[in-house]
Every structure is written in C-alpha cells, then in structure tokens.
Amino acid sequence: MSGALGDFTAAVQLNPTNPTLRFCRASIYIARGELDNAIADLDTHVQLNPEDANAFAMRAHCHTEEGHYKEAAEDLSKVILLAPDNPRACNNLAWLRAACPDDAVRDGKAALELATKACDLTEWAQWQYVDTLAGAYAEANNFEKALEYQKKAIGMNGDRKSTRLNSSH
C-alpha cells in the first residue's frame, strides 16, 4: 500500500482512537470505490466522535450507494438531529422516504415534511429540493401537487436562476 492510503493506514495503526484519521482514510476509500472499508472506518469514527454530523452524512452516502437504505435513513436522521438546519440532509432523507426502492423505508408524510423543510431552508432557490418535494407529493398520492412542483423544478433548472448544490440526486 502506497501513497495517501498507506500513510493514513500507518497513522491509524499508530493512533487507532483518532477519529480524524479514520475520517480521512474513509474519504480515500470512497474515492477508490471501497465503500465497505469506508463504512468500517466511519463506524469507528462515529463511535469515537458521536457528534460529528459530517461523518454520519458520509456514512449515509456509502450506505445509499451500497443499497443499505435503512442504515442510510438512520444516519441521515442522526445528521438532522445533530444539525437540524442542514438542508442537504433534509433533502437526502426526503428523497429516500419518497423514492427508495425498499418499501419499508418509504414514508410519504415524512418525505413531505423533510422536503418542505429543505425548500424553506434554502428559500426555495434549489431546483433539486423542489424536485424532491414533487417526488414526496407523488409518494403521498397527491399527483396534482407532484406535477405542479415537478414543473416548477424543471422551470427553475431551465432558467438557471437557482444555485446548483452538489446533492445526492
């Protein structure tokens, strides 16, 4: 093992209870597509530093990519508990609740609440979050509102007035 991964692995071996080293090595694993290794480091990181919303968000991303939707939803819920005004976490959890392939994770009512909160937190300026709200309305079987907000999201994206954030959807 060479390069940054090797350096962080050596550092973790020297100081296994340093959560920052685990977080940094997890970032490298993610970049390499080694999500199981990233999750293992993030598991240790959140045990050592249970108030780190960023680590829970990163682990939620890994779980989503791996198809571990229940775990992703749990981690995103933890992010929102630790950082209630985080619009990205609200949006990402709303998207899971609205469109997850696992029926047990979907919840239209929760998706609506979370998507609306994400839109409110960003003053309705993010087309991606409005798109999530459309999906939440569809999951809640309100197709008229779903269509209304989907058109709004398309219009926002089309005129490029909104700022594009790097979101998971």
Q: Could you explain the architecture of this structure?
A:
With 169 residues, the protein is mainly α. Helix content is 74%, strand content 0%. The protein contains nine helices and no strands. It has helices at residues 3-14, 19-32, 35-48, 53-66, 69-82, 87-99, 108-121, 127-139, 143-159. Helix 1 (3-14) packs antiparallel against helix 2 and helix 5 (69-82) packs antiparallel against helix 6 (87-99).
Summary keywords:
0% strand; mainly alpha; elongated; 169 residues
Instruction: Report the span from N to C terminus.
Output: 33 Å
- From the helix content, strand content and strand pairing, which structural class follows? mainly alpha
Would you identify the regions where 5 or more consecutive residues have pLDDT less than 50? 162-168
Structure annotation, total helices: 9
Report on the biggest sheet: none
Integer average pLDDT: 92
Strand content: under 5%
Radius of gyration from CA coordinates: 18 Å
| Sequence of secondary-structure elements | HHHHHHHHH
Helix fraction, binned, reads over 70%
- In total, the number of strands is 0
General shape: elongated
